[in-house]
Protein 1
Amino acid sequence: MTLEVEKSEMIPALSQWAPCIRELVERLPEKVFKWAIFDMAEHPANTFAHGRVALVGDAAHASSPFHGAGGCMGVEDALVVVSVLEKALSNISGLSKAEAVTAALQAYSTVRLERSQWLVSSSRDMGEIYQWRYSATGSDPMKIKAEIETRSRKIWDYDVDQMLAEAEGECERRLKLSGQQ
Ligand SMILES: Cc1cc2nc3c(=O)[nH]c(=O)nc-3n(C[C@H](O)[C@H](O)[C@H](O)COP(=O)(O)OP(=O)(O)OC[C@H]3O[C@@H](n4cnc5c(N)ncnc54)[C@H](O)[C@@H]3O)c2cc1C
């Protein structure tokens, strides 16, 4: 994930930057770390749950850091997982514990898949937008601002209560289905 390199490797990349930035680089130690950035955009999981096993956070949907929200997605996942597990285990009626947990985790996966994978692909776009490589916004500051705001609002203005209500509804549906089998 990281590679130790000579500071001189980064100097040409910043040669057109403002003097204060170049001066800052001069003050760095001779050895610096190069960070690789990986995401799961090309390999989205088709489910986050199988039986009594589920993936949450980066294990399920690792993202690049350009939205600054990968950690938040993991926290939202955790909130859904605890709420569906609580619902399923307090309402087992006729099912085994394993069946209830399976239904709960399937509900978690259903509710979280689209949003968390949107973040992975949008975060990739954000990297392009910041570097003026995104064709729809190019180097136009007003277009860039509007695009960043629209995408960020999707993260900031998310209705968490609505998400939990959906998760509980989906969990109930799946518990009923398991009971009928
Ligand atoms: C440069 C950068 C900037 C970021 N900025 C932000 C930000 O501003 N806001 C934000 O919300 N998110 C940000 N993120 C994303 C955020 O850091 C991650 O989404 C978050 O840390 C994922 O949490 P996690 O618990 O899912 O996984 P991790 O944090 O990766 O935790 C997994 C843990 O499991 C441990 N582990 C692995 N294998 C095993 C094993 N076999 N046995 C036991 N333990 C094991 C690992 O050591 C690790 O501690 C950023 C990420 C990067 C790289």
Note: The chain has a mean pLDDT of 95.
Protein 2
Amino acid sequence: MTISAMGVAAFSAPAYLTGDAAQSRIPVNPDVAPHYLSIVIHALPASLALFLGPLQFITPLRVKRPGLHRIVGRIYMISIVAATIAATFATIFTLDGVPVQVGFALLIAAWVYTLARGYRTIRRGEVQLHRIWMIRNYSLTFAAVVLRAFLGLGLALQEPYPWITFADIYTSSVWASIVICAVIPEYFIIQRMLTPLARRQQRRQTAATGRPDRAVA
Ligand code: HEM
């Protein structure tokens, strides 16, 4: 995951460092001058967030260098705020159609919401909840990687199935990446974090009451 995230970040950003709209990988709206600018302002900090995110999940680094975790976390947050504001404009001006606009609008809302919850929980010292919200948030950031993987797969399928249009591939890739990146972390959060917690609580209740179905008053 880390390698693919860093690879996509390193691959995506350079085309938008030149300031040349002709190098954009998606069609730029010729009637709206700020469209290209919004893609550039979005792509650069979004790539930085994608690149930095994996560092935050390396436990020894987090434990040994908490100061570094805080600094990288702040850069990650600022990058997402900047990328989100620009993505809102890119969503409004995109030429890729209403289904894509709806998908990106939902992704933007979920990206900001999970980030805000991640920030609020750590300010309150709720470390475990911070961890859960940041897993959700980075999974949504990772949608950029999953989207590009689906695009690659879709383009490869165009050869044997030439009736599939690029619009079909793009729209289904956007939606598939959003759904997958929203659902997969829930599996890990429930299985790895909440299930052991529920089991521990259940064992404590059983030990205290002698009955598995009685709550301790
Ligand atoms: C997860 C939240 C994200 C949202 C809501 C979002 C939204 C958008 C939108 C609306 C566009 C314009 C698409 C179009 O017109 O069809 C776009 C393009 C782009 N985004 Fe994001 N994006 C997100 C994450 C990322 C990340 C993490 C990266 C890092 C690589 C990234 C890099 C790009 C690039 C490079 C483009 C230009 C198209 C291309 O060259 O592939 N985005 N994004």
Note: The chain has a mean pLDDT of 93.
Protein 3
Amino acid sequence: MDKKKLDYFKNKLMFERKSLMELIEQMRKNDTIDSKMEIASELSYYDNHPSDLASEFNDIQRGMAFRKNEEALLNKIGNAIDKVEHGGYGICEVCGKPISEERLEFVPYAENCVECQNKLNDSMPREKK
Ligand SMILES: [Zn+2]
């Protein structure tokens, strides 16, 4: 990949990282997730509104999963920027072949080519319904 392309993807990654960091920072500041958790654990001593509690817990789990997700994504973006600077960007971590630029355009922090990603997805345990 030539320098111009690398710079282009680097800018893209930097921009994504910045907006993601702002989002996480905002979630931390609001701290709605953590304070809700405290309230919920206090409430669980009383058996007043079991149905309300259940939906409260779902919210918390969703919020925590979301934050975890965002932090994992931030990590990936950081790794990708590192690769732009030190080499290896746009190379599949599994098979070592170049990742298509169309894919990088869509997912600039992609670690695997489409083929390997599909294989990885197939081997993942299916969600229980
Ligand atoms: Zn691959």
Note: The chain is about 70% helix and 0% strand.
Protein 4
Amino acid sequence: MSTPDSRPVTNEVTVRACPDGPLLLRGPATIVDEAGDAVPRSRATVALCRCGGTAIAPWCDGTHKVNGYRSDD
Ligand code: FES
């Protein structure tokens, strides 16, 4: 089986840090909140906030683009 862009479907989980932005999580990982409850997700790839500015935690809402977040600080 393949994804729509012809990449093979795998159970691999990857997390990629975007420069000055979120962590892109790809794959079938379960995200849990501080209470240990699973956070529902509907996409195979999700962006996790690491700037602390998002209004929709744990997801990135683009606020890092306006709050001056720098990943190299
Ligand atoms: S990393 Fe995008 S809003 Fe925080």
Note: The chain has one domain: 1-73.
